[in-house]
């Protein structure tokens, strides 16, 4: 089996044995996803890039301690989430989340007026998400924008599933209230 066709588990095992090519393949395979998560948490591309770099350094340093209790992707989500949260803690106030065409386009052809309305609505939602506290923003981003399961998110955040469900409920409730305020105000 070639390195390019290896599973994440096989790549991690090879990297733990000292194979730099295996770790390089992990980086190539998962950087885009890690960047997307960091950007959605931080709302700033430069900070997201920094968080991803920090995450990869942390992953390299922590590689020997990875026991395989979770999937490598779950571990990498945890590492990048922690790096992004460290960025959030280092700065105040939060930087506005800049919606991008990638995040708001449905990929289909639509009339310009309809697309403009959808873009405006998406921008409003992203601005409302940026106002959430990190303890609410992170699980909401991982669930609603990244499509992760409750179990995966609970593992990433190292919280029990019932606690995660509670955080998500509060995040959704707060998000809806903020959206109402933004539309009415």
UniProtKB/TrEMBL annotation:
Entry's transmembrane regions: none
Gene3D superfamilies listed in its UniProt record: 1.10.1740.10, Winged helix-like DNA-binding domain superfamily/Winged helix DNA-binding domain (1.10.10.10)
Record InterPro entries: RNA_pol_sigma-70-like (IPR039425), RNA_pol_sigma-70_dom (IPR014284), RNA_pol_sigma70_r2 (IPR007627), RNA_pol_sigma70_r4_t2 (IPR013249), RNA_pol_sigma_r2 (IPR013325), RNA_pol_sigma_r3/r4-like (IPR013324), WH-like_DNA-bd_sf (IPR036388)
Domain RNA polymerase sigma factor 70 region 4 type: 124-175
One Pfam family this sequence matches: Sigma70_r4_2
Record's keyword annotation contains DNA-binding: yes
UniProt KW DNA-binding keyword: yes
Any Gene Ontology biological process: DNA-templated transcription initiation
One MF term in the entry's GO annotations: DNA binding
Domain RNA polymerase sigma-70 region: 26-92
Xref: CDD domains: Sigma70_r4
Record keywords, A-Z: DNA-binding, Sigma factor, Transcription, Transcription regulation
SUPFAM superfamilies found in the cross-reference section: Sigma2 domain of RNA polymerase sigma factors, Sigma3 and sigma4 domains of RNA polymerase sigma factors
Protein family membership: Belongs to the sigma-70 factor family. ECF subfamily.
Protein name: Sigma-70 family RNA polymerase sigma factor
Source organism of the structure: Saccharopolyspora hirsuta
Lineage, broadest ranks: Bacteria, Bacillati, Actinomycetota, Actinomycetes, Pseudonocardiales
């Amino acid at each position: 089996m070639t390195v390019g066709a290896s599973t994440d588990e096989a790549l991690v095992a090879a990297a733990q044995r000292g194979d730099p090519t295996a770790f390089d393949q992990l980086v190539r395979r998962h950087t885009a996803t890690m960047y997307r998560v960091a950007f959605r948490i931080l709302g700033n591309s430069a900070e997201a890039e920094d968080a991803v770099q920090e995450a990869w350094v942390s992953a390299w340093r922590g590689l020997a301690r990875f026991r395989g209790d979770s999937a490598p992707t779950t571990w990498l989500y945890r590492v990048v989430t922690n790096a992004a949260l460290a960025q959030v803690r280092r700065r105040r106030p939060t930087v506005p989340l800049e919606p991008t065409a990638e995040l708001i386009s449905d990929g289909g052809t639509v009339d310009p007026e309809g697309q403009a309305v959808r873009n405006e609505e998406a921008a409003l939602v992203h601005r409302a998400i940026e106002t959430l506290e990190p303890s609410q923003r992170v699980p909401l981003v991982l669930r609603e924008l990244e499509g992760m399961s409750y179990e995966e998110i609970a593992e990433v955040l190292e919280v029990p599933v019932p606690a995660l469900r509670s955080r998500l409920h509060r995040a959704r409730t707060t998000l809806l209230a903020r959206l109402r305020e933004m539309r009415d105000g």
